[in-house]
Amino acid sequence: MKIAVLDDSAILRTAIKNTLESFDYEVVLEAASSAELFAYLKDHRVDVVLLDVFFPNENGLDTLRNLKQFHKEVKVVIITGMNQKTITQEAKALKADDIIFKPFGTEDLTAALEKFKH
To answer: Which residues have C-beta within 8 Å of that of residue 111, sequence separation ≥ 6?
Structure first.
């Protein structure tokens, strides 16, 4: 399973990558912006994107919308520190495959990914 981690926090991206790799998941991309993700997707495939909602200059829900429109096969797990009903409802309406709320543990992360194993 090829995984991309999209979060503006380099510390969180690295922590997620290290955690997932310790469970034998393959993190193929750590990106700080949707532009990096979509540039990667031009020539490469990912199975799952772990996607933060809030970025300094963009909205992760817009990224979710674009992923589901142009890369329908990609599973998207929203990662957010905001457990707000409106965000949750919009993410579900945009076809997010799962939502994890910060702070989260290793078990939360691996449980979300286990759902997508073939």
So the answer is: none
Homologous superfamily (CATH) of 2-114 is Response regulator (3.40.50.2300)
pTM (two decimals): 0.94
pLDDT tens for each residue of 49-63? 999 998 888 889 999
- Which of 66, 98, 65, 94 lies closest to 80 in space, CA to CA? 98
Three-state secondary structure readout of 6-65:
ECCCHHHHHHHHHHHHHCCCEEEEEECCHHHHHHHHCCCCCCEEEEECECCCCEHHHHHH
